[in-house]
Amino acid sequence: MSPRTPKKGKGGIRTDTDLEHKKKGTRKERASFLILCEGKTEKDYFVGMRSRQGPHIDVDAPKVDHLSIIREAVARRSDEYDAVWCVLDTELDEGLTSALISEAKRGSIDLCLSTPCFEVWLIMHHTDCTRSFLSANEAKRRLRSVAPGWSEGNTRFSDFLHGLDAACLRARQLDPTGEDFLRNPSTNAWQLVLAIRPKA
């Protein structure tokens, strides 16, 4: 009897089940990501993106400088993860940004960079964000004006979920390549979000 021939008992009635016909190992594995963040705001945002339907996401915010975060990401990279990302601010510092890009390339780490800071990405969930900022603090003040309940110590992804698609669109319009890291303002957070967002 071939494996595809139904088993039959007395009276020609099938005695096998559909479970017996399923091939082992055909269950789709969840993708797995490691995201190392510069601060609590970023960590809280991406922890909030975890879902049963989406990939497995490990998020951490090591209390070290920008370059050390990338080096830690390299040290923690393993076959367990499909991709490892570092979420960092450029601080409007061209020298720092160039160093981050070089370090990430050497270590095969994906970068999510925001200029001047991650709060630009959060602003985009609520409104257009095209005017340059003189500092990260100015961007944070702008975020508080469009999202009055927000604070650095209390970032909830659920507060931004409704504007996620709009934020992706706005960020891509500013930088379609996701590589114009020092454009002010800009962020390629949309690339990370699209990678970890549950697929429809």
Architecture overview:
- The longest helix is centred in the middle third of the chain and has 14 residues, at 94-107.
- The protein is an alpha/beta fold and 200 residues long.
- The relative contact order is 0.15.
- It contains eight helices and five strands.
- The protein has a single domain (30-196), classed as 3-Layer(aba) Sandwich (Rossmann fold).
- It has helices at residues 18-21, 40-47, 66-76, 94-107, 119-123, 136-146, 164-174, 189-196, and strands at 32-37, 56-60, 83-89, 110-115, 186-187.
Structural class: alpha/beta
Over the alpha carbons, how many angstroms does the gyration radius reach? 22 Å
Helix content: 25-40%
Helix count, per DSSP? Answer: 8
First and last CA, distance: 40 Å
Instruction: Please trace the helix and strand order, writing H or E for each element.
Output: HEHEHEHEHHHEH
**How many discrete domains?**
1
CATH topology (fold) name: Rossmann fold
**Shape type:** globular
CATH class: Alpha Beta
Strand adjacency order, main sheet: 2-1-3-4-5
Mean pLDDT: 89
Q: Tell me the number of strands.
A: 5
Beta-strand residue fraction: 5-15%
CATH architecture: 3-Layer(aba) Sandwich
Give start-end ranges of low-pLDDT stretches.
1-9, 13-27
The biggest beta sheet reads:
5 strands, mixed
List keywords for this structure.
single chain; alpha/beta; Rossmann fold; 8 helices; globular
How is this fold's topology laid out?
Blueprint: H1 18-21, E1 32-37, H2 40-47, E2 56-60, H3 66-76, E3 83-89, H4 94-107, E4 110-115, H5 119-123, H6 136-146, H7 164-174, E5 186-187, H8 189-196
Parallel strand pairs: 1-2, 1-3, 3-4
Antiparallel strand pairs: 4-5
Helix pairs in contact: 3-4, 7-8
